[in-house]
């Protein structure tokens, strides 16, 4: 991947919109400079959107987000398969960079490269909204934290904010997967608006 996400501190934010809006993301560096924008590729039907509004209704539908530069040049696709078991990160040409494979929902995700070789893992602490990204030896390489914005914002809008801190140097493709952890965990766990 390019050096676009080379900052050790990143923010991933969703604009504050209603539950029937298309999922969108902004990726900013630590100084607030916009690096990339993401948008859901397929617009969900009203019925699909309504399922995600009520607590206890997990976001089980397949979802895909395209990440692009602010100028519109495609960078990555984050493709969540049906359910909560597999999310792939791909280049715009479809080449797989890596994948999140669910071991225990909300608690443990195996990170895999394009050849399904283990890159590391994401350890989740859902009640505290923390995710630790580790390399194959178990060393922490990144920390992702979902910021709490209050009950009304959480339940009634799509607004979510994540802080991503990366312990450089982190080799590719693990670094790209660490950056994409915020979007992947949001699609897997937080789009349902459950109180977690």
What can you tell me about this protein's structure?
The chain has 196 residues and is mostly beta strands. The chain has one domain (3-97, 140-190). It has three helices and twelve strands, in the order βββαββββββββαβα. The chain has helices at 46-51, 151-156, 174-190; strands at 9-13, 24-29, 34-40, 63-68, 74-80, 86-90, 96-104, 108-113, 118-125, 130-134, 140-147, 161-166. Strands 1-2-3-4-5-6-7-8-9-10-11-12 form a twelve-stranded antiparallel barrel. A hairpin with a 5-residue loop joins strand 4 (63-68) and strand 5 (74-80). It is globular. Residues 151-157 and 192-196 have low confidence and may be disordered.
The secondary-structure element order is EEEHEEEEEEEEHEH
Distance between the termini: 33 Å
Question: Looking across the biggest beta sheet, what order are the strands in?
Answer: 1-2-3-4-5-6-7-8-9-10-11-12
State the helical fraction.
10-25%
Number of strands: 12
SSE class: mainly beta
- What spatial form do the alpha-carbon principal axes imply? globular
| Overall average residue pLDDT | 83
Contiguous uncertain segments of 5+ residues: 151-157, 192-196
Radius of gyration: 15 Å
What proportion strand? 35-45%
Tell me the number of helical segments per DSSP (H or I, 4 or more residues long).
3
Explain briefly what this protein structure is:
This is Scramblase. With 196 residues, this protein is mainly beta.
